[in-house]
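User: Second chain of the day. Same drill as before.
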Amino acid sequence: MSRPTDEPGEPGQQAAASRPGGRSARVRAAVFEAATELLRGPDWSRITMARIAERAGVNSTTVYRRWGSLENLVGDLADATVSERAPLPDTGTLAGDIRAHSQILVNDLTGENRRFLLRALIIAGNGAGDDSGQRALLERTGGARIMFERAAARGEPTVDVVSYFEGVVGPLYGWALLVPSLVRRRAPALVENFLADLENCRPEPPDESTSS
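Assistant: Same format as last time:
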């Protein structure tokens, strides 16, 4: 039996390796498709890098070199799945962006991808030890970080992704794991409470009457 190559479905052909969006994009697509199929299957908890590589028809060395660990691969897959289904909100206001972003999350956690995303979250979080937990969180919330940076550039309150995770994202994932039927009902209150806390933390403008 021939060994898998770096080119899924085209053994031995390396001509496209140097083209942007060529071999590299096809490898990524094949690996993501294989990982998705395994995560949706009954033995999802037994997923490994080797099983993904074998199913994708890609050399396992290539998979390890690109992602480094199963947690990174599955986390990257979950991020891509969410971002491809809905673009990052850009409503022009921080409050509007947060409300829209939370709604995307609610739709994912209550829709057809709910089980897949929760399984991916469990696996992606396995590698987040004491030293790497915050780094893993920042990687998983890169889109939200961009959203907050845009708001700060407009002069709106500064938001860090850890606070957003603690106030909105984490609780929603918790409800999705424990009581899925409450996710959509709880989301508006979580968001409005988070926005109210941001407003309360906004510094008071200087009193011009005392500065003269």
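The chain has a mean pLDDT of 81.

User: Great, on to the next one.
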